[in-house]
Structures
1.
Amino acid sequence: MPRARLVPLRPLAAAEEPPSLAWVPTANASLEERAAALRARFGASFACACERCSYEARGGSVGAPLVALARDAMEDGRLAAATAMLRARVSACRTDGDAWMLLGTALLGSERWTAAHEAWRAGAELAPHHALLGRQCRKDRSYRADGVAAAAGGAEGAAPCEVHALAGGGPACKVVVSRSPLFSAAECERAVAAAEAHAAKSGGWTTSRHRAVPTTDVPVHEVPELLRWFNHAMAGRIAPLLAAQFRVAAADIRVHDAFLVRYSASGGQAHLPLHTDESVLSLTVVLNDEFEGGGTFFADLRRSLSPPVGHLVAFHGRALHGGEPIVSGVRYIVAAFLYVAELNKEQHKPNGERKQRKMDGRTARR
């Protein structure tokens, strides 16, 4: 039997799953294809006994370690398979908080935003002591507390915008910049002061909330003054603008995450590499001008956009973009990841049953 040496790139915690090695391609290969490849490599009598092959050979046994198998599937990009496994797990064990949390993550990866948040909500009800589910649902509730979605009106009276088309076509493939400030300089100063005061009291700015592209930030929902300001701004100013520009119903816009970001030229984070966001729509609001450099670079536009204080930049979350380096001073922005409520999609009841949301005449376009 061939041997391989596994070299860890970081220390492995005792509770982590042991590392595994695949001798044949696994991501998109069926059970039969993998078995044939293994027999060709190791002989006609070879039979794989790994957990995934055993699970698939039994036709999807609920008794299998479904959460571990789902994690492997997600790493391979097999989100539909992971979702099916996790649904089976939460149906068999409705209080498995890890399975509910991972189910929401798998649905989010499939861009099923509403279903993801509903899964987290159902899991938090059934596994009330699960820390991550509780934290996620408290964040969700904070952005609904002032009726961000329900109070948002239509597109009438939305601020005019400068529009930059992106590759791909369609109403959402663009970047919009408000032609006039949505927020006064005094509002922006108060937002920065609230974030700095919170960071000073709580031990500093967070740097590890976003795994792929971390930012130095303060979560909006953790600062009461910031949260009140942001929720009212979403309902009264931001949602109508987005509704007009991206052809969605203002009342269907939901907040996935919002945070106040700090870029510093003299230490800490000075820029953000090219990336896409975990959102349907993203936005930034410029909060100060005491810096040089900076701005948001959009790969499709081959240029950076850096509007004055109080202006908003909004764009499709899949647009490739990054934060240009600042060369002096400190730059502050508010960034938000948004999604659009999906009507008539599958929802999760606490008892594990499925239901259909009633249509109310609105159309949500992704």
2.
Amino acid sequence: MPDGKQHTPATAASGLLLLFVATVTVQGCSGSPSPATFESLTISAGLSQTHFWVGNYMDPFADTIEVETDLVFTRFYAGELVAVGGELDALESGVIGVAAPLLAPYHEGRFPLSDVTQLPTYGTDSRMITRAFQRLLASEVEVRAGKTFYDYEITDKGLVAWGLGATGAYAISTTGAELNRVEDFRGMPVRAGSALHTIVLERLGVTPVTMPAASAYEALSRGTIDGIILSIGDWVSYSLEELLTYTLTDVAIGHWQSYLAVTQRTWDGLTDDQRDSWARVADAVTTRNAEYIDEQDGAVRARALASGATFVPVQQLPVAMRDHIARAATETWIQWIEQTERNGHPARATAVLWAELVVAQGGTLPDGVANYLALEP
């Protein structure tokens, strides 16, 4: 990797002393200080390099920035410096300069509207959801008086952020149990990765077991859980390809989105040229990341099929089962909106905007959602 430093756990402690190498603040003629200009930034991922948000986003982004600018990144992987869910605190405290990714859903209650991408949809993939999310971040539509989605979720926290390539469709997969009847869901322990996953699983009649995806291998191997909600392409990130043998497809239990993020102070400390390169490269890598994620989704599925795994499109299920899943999907939208609104956040306005963006990209909403949101046909 060009000029960058890659750290292992053994060198992580020494890396703390090199968080930022900045030029000395220069006093202008007016006597007011100019912002520090950062020459080196610590960039951290709580995920391993095998994950598509690290090996195919963080690294290509950092590599390109190091070629185009004089910035150099000191890189940490797999939570060796900051664990999953600790990214915001680490940015605010200066422990890291860049979170890649900042996993918003693991920051419980702190990014309440970012879960909107996890609402169930039909016929969506990474590229569609990535484009919709980029438009959500750029939208001038106010979700609360005077605040856009970006203002509410990002600016108000003192951050500057870009969306990554969205995961593929989250699907329900099991270690072999077939899901043909409504009764097959009842009581089955299934991994949930977020509060919104818990809602949809409870609506299906499943017993949600909340845990990070990194803990799923052991839980599935031991029989602590019988299934998981995860995108198919993500199986390889957690060594799950040999464990998961039955999957329901063509209904997305949402898509997971996260951010490349820095603090406003760090952003202001970059030069104009550095900021221009950063924004352009971030958007370009996001587009390539989404393409890669869709390709990986297909490749993992093909390998699983060759090994005897079963993928069942939801349209091939018995009518009672299809209706049950569709009803759970619709009820998940309603419950998330009303629950988040009760907590004081503009979930309904966000959901309306998100639904319109998803449909504009060719996605389909669960039956009843458009009516509930009073969307125009």
